[in-house]
Write a structure and sequence with these properties.
Length: 262
């Protein structure tokens, strides 16, 4: 870039992203998340409010985004094939099982969530996850990718993870940790989130979406630990995820041939 970025715009976008992650966010929470001075945060919130993208939450407890933020994505028509093919199957999972589903694709050495049904679930542990980037090492959607991607790709990802500044990506004895993740996931037939990372009240289970000898993405369900025991996990959630994964592959192949999905 020949010109430096406009810092005020970057700050406003960082505030908007943080607002989008929670139903309601206080100035103190925005301060902790962004590190921006509180007077700056207040000016940016006022600007976003005037623009119609933010508003004070009910009873004045913090700020929240407005429905106008949806207009910011109106011109976006892209997205990976797996997201286009998988969106209806993710919605079907949530309709039947109630828990929110997500589809993620590899982005560098992270998994980027491209589809989420949180808005369709009344029992979601999260508020918003689309666009979030998750660790391959600690998160279920990432572990499912690591466990089933080709060996050569995993070796490349290992080198990328070793260079990461994120502590979730670089536990002690990284190579041994990844070998353990792969072995356990393959033995179980599914991957789960590291129980030591937040939020600990919930968990995610994920399986790969495999196409043509590679992993096109991963699909998972998130749930409260207190509501899902091992039997429900292995007899209801995992089989439903694997079925959805197979159907997504069929839809992807159909789309690749230029046919409309069912």
């Amino acid at each position: 870039m020949s010109d430096p970025p406009v810092q005020s715009v970057l700050r406003a976008l960082s505030i908007l992203k943080e607002l989008n992650r929670q139903r309601s966010t206080t100035v103190e929470e925005l301060y902790r998340a962004t590190g921006l001075p509180k007077p700056t945060i207040m000016r940016l919130l006022n600007t976003l409010t005037v623009a119609g993208l933010a508003t004070k939450a009910s009873r004045g407890l913090g700020y929240q985004v407005t429905s106008d933020v949806l207009s910011l994505s109106a011109g976006y028509h892209g997205g990976p094939l797996v997201a286009e093919a998988g969106r209806p199957w993710a919605a079907d999972l949530t309709r039947r099982l109630r828990w929110p589903a997500a589809i993620a694709v590899l982005d560098g050495a992270r998994m980027a969530i491209s589809v989420s049904t949180i808005a369709d679930s009344a029992v979601s542990p999260f508020h918003s996850t689309v666009g979030s980037h998750l660790s391959l090492v600690t998160r279920a959607l990432g572990r499912a990718y690591l466990a089933w991607c080709p060996d050569a790709e995993r070796r490349i990802l290992l080198r990328m993870l070793a260079a990461s500044a994120d502590p979730e990506d670089t536990p002690p004895n990284l190579e041994r940790v990844i070998r353990g993740i792969v072995a356990i996931a393959r033995q179980q037939g599914y991957a789960q989130r590291d129980p030591k990372v937040e939020p600990r009240s919930s968990d995610t289970v994920a399986v790969p979406i495999s196409l043509g000898g590679s992993v096109a993405g991963t699909i998972g369900l998130s749930y409260f630990r207190s509501a899902v025991n091992h039997r429900v996990l292995t007899e209801e959630l995992v089989p439903a995820l694997k079925e959805a994964s197979r159907e997504i592959v069929v839809s992807m192949e159909r789309l690749q041939r230029g046919a409309e999905p069912p």
